[in-house]
Design brief:
Layout: H1 3-11, H2 23-33, H3 53-57
């Protein structure tokens, strides 16, 4: 998912999207707001199905 699309999605949850923030950091903030573990790009495999899974595991 490109950075523009990520910004559109996470902005709806109130995540800081200022220029210069890494995509990974914005997604992890989003995960925390949703009450999930901020695990984006921290695991080799995942049993959960989330919005970020495909992008996450294609490191």
């Amino acid at each position: 998912m490109n950075i523009k699309k990520v910004r559109e999605i996470v902005k709806k949850k109130g995540v800081n999207i200022k220029v210069g923030r890494k995509k990974e950091d914005m997604i992890r903030d989003y995960q925390l707001i949703e009450g999930n573990s901020p695990c984006f790009h921290t695991k080799d495999s995942c049993g959960k199905d989330c919005l970020w899974k495909e992008d996450c595991l294609n490191v």
